[in-house]
Amino acid sequence: MTPAAPALPSPAALPRPASSQRRLLLCRAVAGAAAGALPSWALAAAGSTEKTLPPIWPHALAVPGGVARLSLGPAAERPVVHADGVPVLVLGDAIEWTAIVGIPLAAPVGLARVLVRKAAAPEYALEYRVAPHRYSEQRLTVAPRTVDLSPEDNARYERERDHQRQVMSVFSTPLPRAQDLRMQVPVPGRRSSSFGLRRVFNGQARNPHSGMDIAAPVGTPVVAPLPGRVIDTGDYFFNGGTVWLDHGGGLLTMACHLSGIDVRVGDMVATGQPYCRVGATGRVTGPHLHWGVMLNRTMVNPALFLPA
Fold first, then answer.
1. What is the mean pLDDT of residues 237-255?
2. Whole-angstrom distance, CA of residue 171 vs CA of residue 71
3. What contacts 65, CB < 8 A, 6 or more positions away?
4. What pLDDT, on a 0 to 100 scale, did the predictor assign at position 142?
5. Is the pLDDT at 167 greater than 70, yes or no?
6. Residue 240 CB: number of other CB atoms within 10 A?
7. Higher pLDDT residue, 154 or 217?
8. 151 burial via Cβ count (<10 Å: 0-12, 13-18, 19+)
9. Is 270 helix (H, G, I), strand (E, B) or coil?
């Protein structure tokens, strides 16, 4: 016979923790959100309730193209975390550190892991599980030259691809603050194409859609979703007019298909500051903003950084 589980103490029977203990419990609630809500007695011990626990960004969604929030526990110094050899954003403090891990769209379902190193301790692997997620398919008709590339266009694409890889490898300090990762929507408008769509151009399958498309008229101002530094601008074969912003710690955003760019590399922008304009450049079917969010060199779902 399986022994009965011990009864949990009622909230009233629990001693009220000191402020530092309450903070630890709340931090663990935030870091463990992906695994499910804490039991009500634990929330009561933390001096809170599930309804009053503040929302966190990015939202945890451990699926291909999503974000995993992994609790690293306490440590006097910020742990160093790598996913497939790429540095990962780690936020928090000595009471509780959290790794914010971008999961590639091509990630297999099942166990994944990151490597964690804390001061004066051996490196260890921290595992988490990637759940399945089904993305829809989208069929588009575009100019044939943007699907069947000429030798000259293909050479241009390869040069631009190599340059973009250098841009995407930026991992800078200072790091963003954990409480400031809620992003502002960069432009008002209808979300015309969502993240992760399996794209079929002129009947030919291509890579899944790695950003969020927002329909808006040409010339509509695009605003910065977070404070950041401009690390790249250009006119690219597929992306058209493009600006990359660096928000620190491998968290980058990109705006594509622009009709105008109002900043230069090295400029700093504030949240809500206009810095470019919606267009219809590159491979498009009409005017819109393609907006991408990157963590640890991985494009992730921008909706996880936005309020519902």
1. 97
2. 21
3. 103, 104, 105, 133, 135, 195, 196, 208, 299, 300, 301
4. 63
5. yes
6. 19
7. 217
8. exposed
9. coil
Question: pLDDT for 28-41, tens place per residue?
Answer: 443 343 333 333 33
CA distance 276 to 167: 18
Taking a C-beta distance cutoff of 8 angstroms, is the pair 126, 79 a contact? no
Question: What is the bridge-based pairing of β-strands 288-295 and 298-300?
Answer: antiparallel
Residue 226's pLDDT is 97
Say whether 107 sits in a helix, a strand or coil.
Answer: coil
pLDDT tens per residue across span 46-98: 343 444 556 789 999 999 999 999 999 999 999 999 999 999 999 999 999 99
Cα(102)–Cα(196) distance, rounded to whole angstroms?
Answer: 14
Q: Which tokens is 270 given?
A: 């504030």
* Widest CA span in the chain: 74
Using pLDDT thresholds of 50, 70 and 90, give the confidence band for residue 138. low
- The residue assigned the tokens 């498309």 is 213
Q: Which residues of 115-129 are buried (b: 16+ CB within 10 A; e: fewer)?
A: ebebeeeeeeebebe
Any idea which residue has 């626990």 for tokens? 53
Q: Annotate 13-70 with DSSP letters as a single string.
A: GSPPPPHHHHHHHHHHHHHTGGG-PPPHHHHHHTT--TTTSPP-SSPPB-STTSEEEE
Q: What is the pLDDT of residue 71?
A: 97
Q: Match 């971008």 to its residue by tokens.
A: 102
* H or E stretch covering 298: strand 298-300
